[in-house]
Amino acid sequence: MNLEQRCAESGLKMTGQRKIILKVLDEADDHPSVEAVYERAKALDATISMATVYRTLNLLDELQLVIRRDFNEKFSRYDINTDHHHHLIDVESGEVIEFQNQEIEDMKAAIARNLGYDLVECKLELYGRKIKKSS
Amino acid sequence: MNLEQRCAESGLKMTGQRKIILKVLDEADDHPSVEAVYERAKALDATISMATVYRTLNLLDELQLVIRRDFNEKFSRYDINTDHHHHLIDVESGEVIEFQNQEIEDMKAAIARNLGYDLVECKLELYGRKIKKSS
DNA sequence: GTAGCTGCAAACTCTTTGCAACTCT
DNA sequence: AGAGTTGCAAAGAGTTTGCAGCTAC
User: Is the same domain home to B10 and B75?
Assistant: First the structure.
């Protein structure tokens, strides 16, 4: 099921602008900033405004259809894949790679429990440099 | 060795304002925001300005004497303990607890290596709710 | 003496919002 | 018809910066 269908289910009105933004998000395979979503949407419909992009992303975040992320930059990026996963950020290119790891999941919950807490949420970001293959 | 001594070593001039800000940081056992540092410093010397607090924290961050953090809030906080550690944030009170865990360290490096990266840096934040003791 | 530091206010960046017009349903 | 949505411009929050005067070294 795509974002447009899931939004309709939540009772959001399907305006032309909204459809375009959802299409842009559905087709994104990266972690776009608001600015990036705006640029891609504007290429499809020049009348879309920044304010609408912000409002739409805030709505989607509340509905948990996207996840707002903060990769040590001064603006937010959006994660369209809402499956539980973590990120490795290439410190040279800025590329973001997603990964999952069950051992880490178990360990996280155990650490929280040891400190007297139930784990509600969690964020793991690795920052790394690509290993050059020696020839 | 305290912050003032470490700053002097880096060739920073020890002005009255700077001494006060460093004292505030040395005595902080939390993860204060710029605003918090400013308030605490102002209580000791009313002439200190916000701009000086920002400039000082930026300097200290560059010298790696503090670490700028971003706990999903719209402002930065500063970590004065620069030993490697992670954070558990109490989702109800906002309290920040530091912890270390060698297994996680090893696993992080292994994950990065498997993805073809050398680990440069990393951020692990757990968000949890305090477990109520049953009576 | 001078490089570096300070306070102030203005500028900047990212994000949100009030408003009047418009549009899905 | 009416609630929800939009674009615009202005406002907000957090942070940075130009400048003229001041201060540690």
Answer: yes
